[in-house]
Design a protein that fits this description.
The chain is built from six helices and six strands, in the order βαβαββαβααβα. The chain is an alpha/beta fold. A four-stranded mixed β-sheet has the order 5-2-1-6. Strands 3-4 form a two-stranded antiparallel ribbon. β3 and β4 (75-83) form a beta hairpin.
């Protein structure tokens, strides 16, 4: 009952110099509730000692525990999921000063209340596609067909077909390892 959506700007993309504000290619990926929707995920273990770093890195999200089902339909337990949140929740948790530092400094007035078209950050989008490609064709197809743009209608596959140059978008030299898939 969840779907993936490129729907919110990520302050870190501006800080790292990979956001394209002039074309609204600033979006990160999140998950939102959607009755009847599902998608494939890759799970990994996070040690208790690593959780604070995880929560800090994923600071804009509402982290929830969600059920995981194995590909064969068996119970896969539960995992943490980066769910969309609200600006109010972000401000209550982190304060206006942090919001202004990470978002306001780049002219952003909202994380989760973005109005109108917002497109995936090119470097980040390429990184995601390269990463899922390593998991095989079934996972890649699911990612391309079960990941949506801001309008919740356009599939990522369609977006990449319209603008295949995204997959040639190299990150800056100092971010090649981080965004190399």
């Amino acid at each position: 009952n969840f779907r993936r959506v490129f729907r919110h700007p990520a302050g870190i993309f501006f800080t790292r110099g990979i956001a394209r504000a002039e074309t609204n290619e600033v979006s990160s990926l999140s998950v939102e509730r959607c009755e009847g929707a599902s998608f494939l995920v890759s799970t990994f273990d996070i040690g208790d000692d690593e959780l604070p770093t995880f929560y800090e890195r994923e600071e804009e999200f509402h982290i929830v525990t969600a059920p995981v089902e194995e590909l064969d339909g068996s119970d896969g337990g539960a995992g943490l999921l980066c769910l969309s949140s609200t600006d109010e929740a972000y401000l209550a948790k982190h304060g206006k000063q942090k919001f202004d530092q990470l978002y306001g400094a780049h002219g952003l007035t909202s994380i989760w209340g973005w109005e109108g078209e917002i497109l995936p950050c090119r470097v980040y989008c390429r990184h995601c596609v390269l990463a899922v490609t390593k998991a095989g064709q079934e996972v890649l197809d699911d990612f391309l067909d079960q990941t949506f743009l801001w309008d919740r209608k356009t599939k990522l596959r369609e977006h990449l077909e319209r603008d295949p140059s995204i997959m040639s978008e190299l990150p800056p030299e100092d971010l090649r390892e981080r965004y190399g898939g």
